[in-house]
Amino acid sequence: MKFQAIKGVRDILPPESALWNRVEQAAREVFQTYGYGEIRLPIFEPTELFARSVGLDTDIVSKEMYSFEDYETSEVIEHRNAVLTFPETVSPLDPITPFRSFSDLASRFVSLAQEALDAGRIPRTPENEAVLRLVGQEVGQFRAYLQNRGIAENNLLVVQIKERVREIKFGDVLALRPEATASVVRAYIEHGMHTQPGNVKLYYIGPMFRRERPQKGRYRQFYQIGAELLGPSDDPSLDAEVIEMLLDFFARVNLHGAKLYINSIGDKNCRPAYVELLRGELQKVRDKLGADSQRRIETNPLRVLDSKRSEEQPIIDRLPHIADHLCDACREHYAELKRQLASRQIDYEENWRLVRGLDYYMRTTFEIIAAGLGSQNAVCGGGRYDGLVELLGGPAATKGIGFAIGTDRLMLSLQEAGATAKCGLEVYIAWMGAQAYPAAVALARKLREHNLSVELPAQEMKFGKSLNLADRLGARFAVILGEDELAAGQFTVKRLADGDQRKLSEAELLEYLTKSRTA
Ligand code: ATP
Ligand code: MG
């Protein structure tokens, strides 16, 4: 049996991982200069956290989440599994015995489940209580009817009881995080961070999970670098500074040709009226839209603007723009954002269709498009989410803004533009002779103390073969250590790029190697 990484996930290997590290390190450095500190978050959270914040009618929540029920194996779980896997066909020769054992099994399950529910080992929700009561009744009926029913009727009851048992929630429903803003806000509330002076500025780096159709730039485990600013103020200069930080980072990693798009999607004062207007307009052209967009007329008309279907484009082009329907406060906020961006010499383009796929955004939204990525070309999305802290049970006055960079796509774009990371091996120690080995071990230790990357072959090799391997490993230098060198108390060092060779004492060697590293 051969194992392979599952669909949509992948390994990031050296030397590519070195490039990833360099990019993540650049984010740490740049964000730190803006006063952001790292938050390390759990990989899984209650599914409800994402459902509440990201929104039910989003692709992420409705179809992309890796959700699972979290419970410990126990007697009640074992009985549940036995009930669920009970065979539904029985031999006409002996129709009663198997049903009798099902009835015993199911009764035992009901009493164990009731005990567990009373003790709180199964979530004590009204739903669970109601379902368990029904299962109890059905199992009682099954037992009472067992004698007089035929195989078909009994099987029908078995199926019905199984269905019912499936409805019981045995543990918390958790999900692998599809994004991290919800977790940051959850942590902000949980740790009472609103009492901290000034704004709370946090960044995170790590994997996210969405069950999407895998393709270039779209994976089921992908990585994000994100930052969030939470606090009492929604001043547009904060939005501009967040964008400035983002562009600083992109400049630091040499991402060229990135384009910034901005929009404002209003707030709870003006957006509802615009959404109604949009809904009305969409209803007029309903039959020209695809099934997804038709559904969204009811559930979330803004998302129609997100559509990439070519036949819908001419229709969407004629829809009313939100910019013409913002309330005074939102219009002024947006205008000031643009002034703030201009005063920071930040180029942007307005895109009235930029609504973002998550429910929590309001007012400022932005996106960055990079080169070399085909249709998965958004490397970063972000925006303001002033109501989210309140929605998740935190202080109502807290405002927030943030972004998430898709690291996988950023790396693809950088690599497309020629970025590579070289093998980091600096020194290969080619040794020969039993006495040379301890000297080679001692030298390796000394060099590593000076932060040089050293390869020390475990087995003796002829110098020719050893140097050949050093070359193939991409080492910059080979240090040759044989009987001659031991006798002379010197090392022969060969620069592999041009064959330059010299004999040096240990002190000279150290100086030579550490100097040439920075050169
Ligand atoms: P898209 O428009 O590509 O579906 P999105 O709107 O779902 O992106 P966000 O949830 O805003 O994206 O996430 C921010 C960034 O994370 C995106 O701009 C993108 O770079 C990256 N991203 C999102 N989903 C994936 C994925 N499945 N694989 C790789 N990167 C992703
Ligand atoms: Mg998406």
Low-confidence stretches: none
Nearest-integer average pLDDT: 94
Question: Number of DSSP strands?
Answer: 16
Chemical compounds bound to the protein: adenosine-5'-triphosphate, magnesium ion
Rg, nearest Å: 32 Å
Strand order of the largest sheet: 1-5-6-11-10-9-7-8
Helix and strand composition category: alpha+beta
> Hey, roughly how much beta strand do the residues contain?
15-25%
Features:
19 helices, binds magnesium ion, 5-stranded mixed β-sheet, alpha+beta, about 525 residues, globular, single chain
Q: How would you describe what is shown here?
A:
The protein has 519 residues and is of the alpha+beta class. Helix content is 44%, strand content 17%. The chain has helices at residues 16-33, 47-54, 59-63, 75-84, 96-118, 126-145, 151-167, 181-190, 236-252, 271-284, 291-299, 313-317, 328-343, 388-391, 407-416, 436-449, 463-473, 483-488, 506-518, and strands at 37-38, 44-46, 67-70, 172-176, 200-209, 221-231, 259-264, 349-350, 362-369, 378-384, 399-406, 427-431, 454-455, 477-481, 491-495, 501-504. A hairpin with a 5-residue loop joins β15 and β16. α1 (16-33) packs antiparallel against α9 (236-252), α5 (96-118) runs antiparallel to α6 (126-145) and α6 runs antiparallel to α7. The longest helix is centred in the first third of the chain and has 23 residues, at 96-118. It is globular, with a radius of gyration of 32 Å. The structure holds adenosine-5'-triphosphate and magnesium ion (MG). Adenosine-5'-triphosphate is lined by residues 179, 210, 212, 217-219, 222, 224, 357, 376, 378-381, 404, 406, 408-409.
